[in-house]
Write a structure and sequence with these properties.
The protein is of the alpha+beta class and 198 residues long. It folds into two domains: 54 residues, Winged helix-like DNA-binding domain superfamily/Winged helix DNA-binding domain (Arc Repressor Mutant, subunit A), CATH 1.10.10; 136 residues, no CATH class. The strands form three sheets. Strands 1-3-2 form a three-stranded antiparallel sheet. The chain contains eleven helices and eight strands.
Length: 198
């Protein structure tokens, strides 16, 4: 039978070198074993409740999502994840439902935005991080509506480049884009871009 440390190591290896306190609890392993693994150099603490193997690549986006589970990657971060821009975000953007306390996320360096609860799940999808962990992110069409809505805080070149890249996509969904644009009240801005680019 495997020791607790061996079980923890096995779970971490199956999860791209990461393990969470929740996974340990679900495996009926005492949480004190995480501390013991850190003391032995088997694990390093990456953030609250998230641990990594010393030689593994830290999945910063997955750790942020684990730390702030209500956050959805959005704006420039979502553009980057969807390959609509080649600019790596300096800080990650996440959107939270109105009423959620975003103070800790902002302290962590996250560009935290709030949205009405009725629009919070609109366009929510999952995609893999660079380490193949599941990330919650807004889909392409929702992301375009968001950046158009906030274009004063978003570089106009990034918006234009993203729109051009979207029009070139084979799997673009113009109907969905305009449905979202109507709900988010940016249909005139989206229509202007589409008239120019299509």
């Amino acid at each position: 039978m495997k020791t607790y440390a061996e079980q923890i190591l096995a779970i971490a290896k199956q999860s791209n070198g990461m393990i969470t306190a929740t996974q340990v609890t679900e495996a009926n392993i005492p949480r004190r074993c995480l501390t013991e693994c850190m003391d032995k150099g088997i694990l390093c603490k990456a953030s609250r409740g998230v641990y990594v193997l010393p030689d593994s690549w830290e999945d910063e986006m997955f750790m942020l999502q684990y730390t702030y589970p209500k956050g959805i990657f959005s704006y420039e971060t979502a553009l980057y994840l969807h390959s609509l821009t080649d600019r790596t975000p300096l800080r990650y953007s996440m959107t939270f439902p109105k009423g959620y306390n975003i103070t800790a996320a902002k302290t962590h360096g996250v560009v935290a935005r709030m949205v009405n609860v009725e629009n919070y799940d609109l366009g929510l999808t999952e995609m893999p991080s660079s380490c193949n962990n599941k990330l919650r992110v807004y889909d392409v069409e929702r992301t375009l509506c968001d950046i158009v809505k906030r274009k004063n805080s978003c570089d106009i070149q990034i918006v234009t480049e993203a729109m051009k890249n979207y029009v070139a996509l084979k799997n673009k969904n113009i109907h969905k884009l305009f449905t979202y644009a109507t709900q988010l009240r940016v249909q005139s801005q989206i229509a202007r871009y589409m008239e120019i680019l299509l």
